[in-house]
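Handout, page 2. Input:
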Amino acid sequence: MSAPGPDLLAYEVVDVFAPRPFSGNQLAVVLDAGDLTTAQCQALAAEFGFSESTFVSAPGTEDADYRVRIFTPQHELPFAGHPSVGTAHTLVRLGHLPPGVLRQECGAGVVAVAVDDEGARLTGGSVSLRPGPDAAVLAAAVGLDAGDVTGRPVHLVGCGIDFAQLEVHAAALARAEPDPAALGALLPGVQGGVSVLAWDAATATGTVRVFAAGLGWHEDSATGSAALGTGIWLAATGLAADGTTDYELAQGAAVGRPSVLSGRVTVAGGAVTEVSVAGAVRPIASGIVRVPAC
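Output:
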């Protein structure tokens, strides 16, 4: 679909990491957005009101197939998971690009997204791994007690945007309640937020609740970038051995948007060499939107 006029832009709304329509994480994809200013992108993202919206344009490098800018209602992000998966699948579904491995340019560099009929798999870029705060202290900032944590350390992990990964006992997960002031003080400069994980090692599955810094520490329904971080955390804590480990995360039930994220981490010599996350993308709506005057 081409842009419908100089003052209007085409957009798509899709649900990402969605087992069915009207689940997963909502995303607005604004097409032919290369002429928009940062202020105009921000105004549109605030108007849509989803956790993220993306703005697609021609790439600025020969290494990429397209460029995407990613905005929460409050600010721009260099990278995010569900926007990358949803945007790539939308461009293929609309016939803008052929299926296969797409190269997406974003604020964190160029990342690979493999698109099929059902959805897409995003491969993270450079791995970030550093020590996080004390688990009991972080637990207190999400309304939990020291007895709710498992004892495994917190790490700040990501592939373009970092999250604190906190493992808790399954019974504690539903009681998590973020304290924005405490989290902001404890995790200064962490753009992602905190992923609170109940992990089942026997099945390599987990249930997560993600409190996103970019959303004012409110809860996100499906967070691909945090799921990439979970793979890095699994390797750092010895839960993912050398070789390739597949894992599955359930997210979003607490906010009425159940989501499924399929992760994969490859480890060599204890270090992560590649981590990816995949999920289904469900088209929901198409439309046109006015270009803001700002």
